[in-house]
Amino acid sequence: MASSIYNTRETELKAFDETKTGVKGLIDSGITQVPRIFINPQIDPQQALISSANAQLEFPLLDLEGVSDDPIKRNAVVDAVREASETWGFFQVINHGIPEAVLEDMIDGVRRFFGQDDEERKKWYTRDLKKSRVAYNSNFDLYTAPSANWRDTVFCKMAPNLPQPEELPAVCSDIMIEYTKQVLKLGRSLFQLLSEALGLKADHLVDMKCADGVAMLMHYYPKCPQPELTLGASKHADSDFLTVLLTDQVRGLQVLYQNQWVDVPFVPGALVVNIGDLLQLVTNDRFVSADHRVLVNSSSSRVSVACFFRNATTRSTELYWPIEELVSEDDPPRYRATTLEEYITHVRSKGLDGTSALSQFRV
Asked: Which residue ranges does the record assign to the Fe2OG dioxygenase domain (predicted)?
């Protein structure tokens, strides 16, 4: 019996994948019920529908204005970065230096891509990241995760080697390149603040090449006829050093904090920053890579742009393990050394199954 259910699921996944139009294609076709492959058994329907009951919790918001030239301000921000990275694993930044017009155009660029007709989008549809710098598809882990997420994504390796405009979708190529340049500058500043928050020299994490590579993920979460049955992104932590996230004003992102799901508030002009698994590994659990998820809704679609800081050359033999200055006799290394390739391969093979990818690398 179990194998026939599996075969049916496999057939349904394949049929969905072969449309090459993703979840948006389902909505465009006029469906009124969520297909079985998207039904997430881990959702508590009540919990998914209730907005955060923890409104009194203050989500960390950091103002970066003057952080480069005012030592007093810098010390205060470093303290706030340390506190947020050790407890929440998440914070928001304002006055980060990226012009609001660039942020708005980036959000518009994602909407322009997904607003194209099916045939234009299909040109970019692939699951083979080796052959293509740009991969548009629905669910990188479609065939391995317990349930599919209500989300389509364009994935692109943007740095260290910036693509040529002709390598990217024409409707958003210029803004993808401009936004990446701006995020790379911000990323460098953030890694310096994080290094200082760890008691290290400002360039420590930059010198480890944490700030070199950027993968851009442009996510589109269509409106959903039965939002209580599925998720835009199931519970997971990010497979990178650091994520810089830009979202539109539609809420949906939640962080698991003190065993409760907490809404990330929308702050105009702010960017959401979160610690990734690889930074938790190299900081020997000093900083936490928090679980998070995305809810969907029945009234509007949502878009976001996640920039993953991790070296894009996954075949690199570079080994990562806990930073020497952060381990001691009393606090020995908690992780074994790993390459980015080994780590990413593990993440892709297990998919977003609700478990931590880091547990595989614990000593």
From this structure: 212-312
User: Is residue 92 classed as helix, strand or coil in its secondary structure?
Assistant: strand
2-361 folds as Jelly Rolls (2.60.120)
**CA 96 vs CA 216, 253, 305: distances in Å:** 19, 21, 16
* 3-class SS of residue 137: strand
Domain boundary assignment for the chain: 2-361
181, two tokens: 């340049």
Q: pLDDT tens digits for 218-231?
A: 999 999 999 999 99
Secondary structure of 285-309 in HEC code, one letter for each residue: CCCCCCCEEECCCCCCCEEEEEEEE
What's the rounded Cα separation, in Å, for the pair 253 and 233? 9
Q: Residue 294 corresponds to which amino acid?
A: V
CA distance 130 to 142: 18
Token pair in block for residue 139: 């669910």
Residues in the chain where the model's pLDDT stays below 50: 1, 48-52
Residue 165 Cα distances to 24, 119, 178, 248, angstroms: 25, 20, 11, 24
